């Protein structure tokens, strides 16, 4: 490669790199700084230096970080959000597996259509998909009324689906399900069915065929899907905001609150950085699992 | 040869999951034609929620705003994303993929709040401009991916042939690479457009008080009350996305699967 070509390469990378430095890297670094600063009197941040008797002093603090650990509320909420995201990932795996397997074992000419049917709802607006569940879970909705006929007949208290953790997790599953189906399908599609035939010939029953052959081979697909479901579920705020009420809030709601309502930016930054840290760890873990999990890690 | 066909159990489980995916959206669409203020039981067919929508100035203004923002963001993201895709493909800058794909991996809320923080600290007034700047930053990666996947499948020998026949680097790019890349670029542009017009979270943090987009408008509507007017907007929005997807799948069938 000659010099002119190298120069062209760098010139090509320059505009997008500069843009993302300015609008992705710099804001992240500013947030890191903000987490060590004092909140401003009217929201925002207090100045990070002050001049007294002609002497410049810096004004940074660890208070915001300590606050995270001092009050159990925020750590508790973080663990609760991790729990919600984990449960969402589990339910998504359980629901995605049969569908992905069904598509992978369908005739080739139907597969594209069946996949498109998975992706289609996922392209409708995010808020519309949440709104759909607001209708379904509403107290006047057929579902709630029907369930309360049952609970009434059994002599139990009437239940409310709206503003509950059930509503939040159902919607989290609904919104993220395609993220599990697609990588899982990409993996399952590549399996060699002759292995299953061979196992059957050697006397394995259907459960053994699945558990000893299909399942272990599909793990890379599940890991890929789990990352794609877990990370966005963990950071979500719109779903608990609209469906969760006071009991269903997650860490995303508190971050939003710190930045928009109570305007405590330093503490909001601390919570955001914790979320960033968890995300980075998971991405690294996924990259590692993807490498050791075999070649067909899906996309 | 049993394993070439899905078993009956598998098919019924699959159908149930499809129902789970589609029933909620069907509910939204059906109730948008229902002649009742409550989204509870079917009363009768009506167009009135759509008529009401046409006269709702807030919605119309927000929709217009969304459209302008999406067009400008998609145009900017397409140029920058194509460059990024080309640069990543050549692989000279090892740090570039992390920078370009980072915004895709991060939860939306983190991009939203960190941009809000920067805009306020740098005295950038929040409005359509800040929304566009934010949208471009998360769309670049998607365009880059679309372009890169196209590049990966491209026959490199065509370019070498052009160079051997005396084409300058620019000529070989403009006459060979660019036309071959076009489906990827267009697919990326449409994806950026859809992502921008659909985005709620990042817009929520970077919009400020003055400007609104359709998702923000829908959010404030559903925050107050569940009304069939929201069903009508949602149905129209689904129709628009459906059209875009159809176009997208015609241009580049593979890009949807990323």
Automatic annotation (TrEMBL), chain A:
Localization in the cell: Cell membrane
Pfam families from the UniProt entry: BPD_transp_1 (PF00528)
Gene3D superfamilies: MetI-like (1.10.3720.10)
Membrane spanning stretches: 12-36, 73-101, 113-139, 159-186, 265-287
InterPro entries cross-referenced by the UniProt entry: MetI-like (IPR000515), MetI-like_sf (IPR035906)
Signal peptide per UniProt: none
Presence of the UniProt keyword Cell membrane in the record: yes
Protein name: Spermidine/putrescine transport system permease protein
Species this chain originates from: Zhongshania antarctica
Automatic annotation (TrEMBL), chain B:
Location in the cell: Cell membrane
GO biological process terms on file: transmembrane transport
Residue ranges constituting the ABC transmembrane type-1 domain according to the UniProt record: 63-248
Primary localization: membrane
Keyword annotations: Cell membrane, Membrane, Transmembrane, Transmembrane helix, Transport
Pfam families: BPD_transp_1 (PF00528)
Domain of life the protein comes from: Bacteria
Transmembrane annotation, as ranges: 12-33, 67-88, 95-122, 128-147, 173-194, 200-218, 230-251
One Gene Ontology cellular component annotation held by this UniProt entry: plasma membrane
Record's bilayer topology term: Multi-pass membrane protein
InterPro entries: Bact_Polyamine_Transport, MetI-like, MetI-like_sf
Family (UniProt): Belongs to the binding-protein-dependent transport system permease family. CysTW subfamily.
Name this polypeptide is given: Spermidine/putrescine transport system permease protein
């Amino acid at each position: 490669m000659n010099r002119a070509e190298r120069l062209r390469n760098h010139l090509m990378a320059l505009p997008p790199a500069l843009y993302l430095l300015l609008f992705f890297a710099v804001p992240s670094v500013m947030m890191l700084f903000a987490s060590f600063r004092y909140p401003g009197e009217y929201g925002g941040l207090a100045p990070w230096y002050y001049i007294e008797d002609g002497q410049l002093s810096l004004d940074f603090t660890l208070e915001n970080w300590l606050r995270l650990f001092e009050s159990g509320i925020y750590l508790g909420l973080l663990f609760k959000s991790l729990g919600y995201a984990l449960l969402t990932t589990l339910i998504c795996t359980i629901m995605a597996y049969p569908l992905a397997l069904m598509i992978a074992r369908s005739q080739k000419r139907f597969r594209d259509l069946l996949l498109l049917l998975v992706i289609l709802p996922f392209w409708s607006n995010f808020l519309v998909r949440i709104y759909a569940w607001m209708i379904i879970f509403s107290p006047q909705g057929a579902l709630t009324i029907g369930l309360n006929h049952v609970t009434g007949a059994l002599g139990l208290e009437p239940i409310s689906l709206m503003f509950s953790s059930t509503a939040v997790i159902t919607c989290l599953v609904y919104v993220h399900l395609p993220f599990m189906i697609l990588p899982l399908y990409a993996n399952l599609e590549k399996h060699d069915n002759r292995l299953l035939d061979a196992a059957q010939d050697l006397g394995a029953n259907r459960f053994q065929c699945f558990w000893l052959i299909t399942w272990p081979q599909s793990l890379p697909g599940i890991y890929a899907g789990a990352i794609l479901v877990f990370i966005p579920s963990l950071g979500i705020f719109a779903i608990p905001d609209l469906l969760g009420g006071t009991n269903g809030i997650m860490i995303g709601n508190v971050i939003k609150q710190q930045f928009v309502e109570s305007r405590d930016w330093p503490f909001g930054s601390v919570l955001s950085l914790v979320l960033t840290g968890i995300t980075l760890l998971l991405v690294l873990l996924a990259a590692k699992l993807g490498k050791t999990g075999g070649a067909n890690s899906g996309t | 040869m049993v394993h070439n066909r899905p078993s009956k159990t598998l098919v019924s489980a699959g159908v149930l999951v499809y129902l789970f995916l589609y029933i909620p959206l069907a509910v939204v669409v059906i109730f948008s034609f229902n002649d009742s203020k409550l989204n509870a039981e079917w009363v009768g067919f009506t167009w009135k929620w759509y008529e009401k929508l046409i006269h709702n100035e807030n919605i119309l203004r927000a929709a217009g705003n969304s459209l302008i923002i999406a067009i400008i963001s998609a145009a900017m993201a397409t140029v920058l994303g194509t460059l990024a895709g080309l640069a990543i493909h050549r692989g000279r800058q090892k740090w570039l993929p992390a920078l370009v794909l980072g915004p895709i991996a991060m939860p939306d809320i983190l991009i939203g709040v960190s941009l809000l923080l920067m805009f306020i600290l740098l005295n950038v007034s929040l409005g359509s401009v800040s929304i566009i700047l934010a949208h471009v930053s998360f769309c670049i990666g998607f365009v880059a991916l679309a372009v890169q996947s196209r590049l990966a499948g491209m026959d490199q020998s065509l370019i070498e042939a052009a160079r051997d026949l005396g084409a300058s680097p620019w000529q070989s790019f403009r006459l060979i690479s660019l036309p071959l890349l076009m489906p990827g670029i267009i697919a990326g542009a449409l994806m950026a457009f859809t992502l921008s017009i659909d985005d709620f979270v990042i817009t929520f943090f970077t919009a400020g008080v003055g400007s609104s987009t359709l998702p923000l408008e829908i959010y404030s509507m559903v925050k107050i009350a569940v009304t069939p007017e929201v069903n009508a907007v949602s149905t129209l929005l689904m129709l628009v996305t459906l059209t875009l997807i159809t176009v997208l799948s015609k241009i580049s069938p593979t890009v949807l699967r990323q």
